[in-house]
Amino acid sequence: MNELLFVLGLAALCGGLLFWACRHLPGERWQFLASVPLAKEPGGAWRGLNITYYGFFSATAYATAAALLVLMLRAAGVSDLGVAAFVLPLLSACAPASRLVARWVEHKPATFTVGGASFVGLIIAPWLCLLAAYCLPGGAGLNVTTALAALLTAYAVGEGLGRLACISFGCCYGKPLDQCPAWAQRIMAGRGFVFHGHTKKIAYESGWEDRPVFPIQAVTSIVLTGCGLICLYMFLLGLHQYVVWLAVTVSGLWRFFSETLRSDYRGEGRISAYQWMALATIPYGLAMPLIFGPGAAAPPSLAVGLAALWRPGMLLALQGLWLGAMLYMGRSRTTASTLCFHVVQSEL
């Protein structure tokens, strides 16, 4: 019962956030969080560095996914050392992969890809887990299937929440509704996203400011967050191999299908490299429980997982991760600003 209440509480929070995001984030107001003055221009104004809500929501998604991953691993009996030995190398590989894979596929230096990072993460995760278990005394409680189940669950929730970043920046956008299949036009009539602001990516890349488009970011958020929360409940019941199979199948198939409704540049070819990556992860992920077994025998303890999170060191680590992700992904390279400062005489 506690597990169900916990998951339902998370579902309510995520649902409320998504409802708010769909109403507000396509607006021009919600692209930039702040602008930091860097250098003074000859005319007296300052050249500014834009800090984006894309970075804010991406960092929040990263930190949320990391918190869920730690919670699940500790609940499943993995020691603190085991969690660190598995999670830190994984994050260290996935963070640069999000940019390097995008640069390889899209040939753009200032682009990130969750799909590329998740592909790299899933491929290396079983072997990082095996290596960590081999190096640590007693294996530190690490089990490949259990670790993969936790990772895929955290990834699904994290990517679902991370799509809010895409709404705020106007990237990863859908096709104009009038170019969508008839079934999509019927379902989304009056529900499409209309982005405002010439600095949104959909505006400067495709010229579709103020044009209704398929809300693919919102639908992806619903599908992946919903899948992740179902997997979280199954994980807490000890159904680890089924979590792996469900999460890798839903996320892989949805990533492949959803790109047919997207209109941003995804690389060359009728089927993009990201779609091939998504398809490749499905048989790979399905095979892991068959190779490494069904997962940890003992049922996870939600109380142990929550207690592991509610410690000063862990909270500081998650805050540090959030700040690092914010600085890495929130500094806009495709937009700039000009700042002017003055004294408000009436307030003196």
UniProtKB/TrEMBL annotation:
<dbReference type="InterPro" id="IPR001640">
    <property type="entry name" value="Lgt"/>
</dbReference>
<dbReference type="GO" id="GO:0042158">
    <property type="term" value="P:lipoprotein biosynthetic process"/>
</dbReference>
<feature type="transmembrane region" description="Helical">
    <location>
        <begin position="273"/>
        <end position="297"/>
    </location>
</feature>
<feature type="transmembrane region" description="Helical">
    <location>
        <begin position="114"/>
        <end position="136"/>
    </location>
</feature>
<feature type="transmembrane region" description="Helical">
    <location>
        <begin position="83"/>
        <end position="102"/>
    </location>
</feature>
<dbReference type="GO" id="GO:0005886">
    <property type="term" value="C:plasma membrane"/>
</dbReference>
<dbReference type="Pfam" id="PF01790">
    <property type="entry name" value="LGT"/>
</dbReference>
<feature type="transmembrane region" description="Helical">
    <location>
        <begin position="213"/>
        <end position="236"/>
    </location>
</feature>
<feature type="transmembrane region" description="Helical">
    <location>
        <begin position="242"/>
        <end position="261"/>
    </location>
</feature>
<keyword id="KW-0472">Membrane</keyword>
<feature type="transmembrane region" description="Helical">
    <location>
        <begin position="309"/>
        <end position="329"/>
    </location>
</feature>
<keyword id="KW-1133">Transmembrane helix</keyword>
<keyword id="KW-0812">Transmembrane</keyword>
<feature type="transmembrane region" description="Helical">
    <location>
        <begin position="51"/>
        <end position="71"/>
    </location>
</feature>
<protein>
    <recommendedName>
        <fullName>Prolipoprotein diacylglyceryl transferase</fullName>
    </recommendedName>
</protein>
<dbReference type="GO" id="GO:0008961">
    <property type="term" value="F:phosphatidylglycerol-prolipoprotein diacylglyceryl transferase activity"/>
</dbReference>
